[in-house]
Sequence to fold (481 residues):
Amino acid sequence: MMFFLAFLVAFFIVSLVEVLRSAFAPKVADVQLASALSPADAVRAPFSFADLAEKLKPAVVNISTTKTYRQQGGTLRAPFGGGNSFDRFFGGDDFFDKFFGDVPQREFKQKSLGSGFIISHDGYIFTNNHVVEQADKILVKLSDGEKEYEAKIIGKDVKTDIALIKIKPNKSLAVVELGDSDKLRVGDWVMAIGNPFGLEQTVTAGIVSAKGRVIGAGPYDNFIQTDASINPGNSGGPLFSMEGKVIGINTAIVAQGQGIGFAIPINMANRMLPELKTKGEVSRGWLGVSIQDVTEEIAKNLKLKEPTGALIAEVFEGDPAAKAGLKAGDVITAVNGKKIKNSHELLMIVADFRVGEKVEIRALHDGQEKLYLVLIAARTEKADLAVGGEYFGMAVQEITPEIASRLGISQKTGVIVVGVTDGSPADEAGIRPQDVILQVNKIKVSSLKEYEREIGKTSAKEGVLLLIKRGKVSTFVPIRP
Fold:
């Protein structure tokens, strides 16, 4: 009897131990998941951004600018300012000046806000060009809010919307550390600090939604897309990694969207920094070719295995590509061993080369791969004109199905404006990015080549008449030099 009771007690204890062990031990699936992921990967989200934000805020600044405009006095004026259909129909301010020329001019001051971040203890600051361009006065307020410093523009690059400004502080300033945006991965956590709508030192967080975005802002689009909240006033502010390093400059938003913001990769800005400091502008490499993407139809016609590479539409006499022996119809497939996917990628790679640098270009010529050694030249304004560049201060690009789909436009052929230089004839005429050019001097243009042919006939003294489509409305726009 005693033996039987002892057996029951022992059985009960063993069973209880097994129940407790199964209840508190990790599941098999959990053990496998933990072993498959590194400790960093297993972290789904930071518990708090507070410590990181507190550490980084002192290096983020508020930028306010003042721009002065002169306008004819009186009450009857062109109702929407320059560059709209009303102005073009009536001849803009010239029409009103004929009738109200004796009314004295008045000055109007426009104020705007933006953000920036300090990159040196003596006061160099990165921001967006559009934050400070044409400003009569630039004021920088530090995070402590104790004092404002007047800043001057050291260098700027309109094509990438990057500007370097400088203040003269009375103390050593807190600075950010620049990271490596090439190592950034889609899904990484990021944090933005800036001044949206003038609300200073606002912190937002999100993830990297995509990389290498082309949004039609300019010829060198290569944006980081993030869902960290970015609003007007965030422009020029930093996008931080979880290591506390700047990996982007917050630049653009989608007005009709939520959770979609764009930042310039910091590696792009960092490469420009030496030239911005010393020369105030950026020089870029130039091949001397007009290029376009290889579509599936083009690939079939050229008997290519896949629709990749950059197709040369035209080679400009006397420029590097022509001297190296490249011809129209050749497809550039690699530069210095790096495979080229499309024309935009080629443009970005070549732009980063130094003038005088020798590069190896692989291209398909009549179906045969050849190697060319090209000596990079400087990209000049004349060169820009040659590649759907800046005739009258506007840069254009051929419309592809991908561009039409991305921008939501019905136009499937022609050329689209991707950039307008401030103060240029195109800007004064009211041309805007994403305008589609249908005609040049009443001649229909359905491709970049046709556009270049017709606008190339235009005398710089005569100007040009364009038929553009903006949304659902088509309008003739005269551009005067």
About this structure: The mean pLDDT is 79. Residues 388-479 form a domain with the Pdz3 Domain fold (CATH 2.30.42.10).
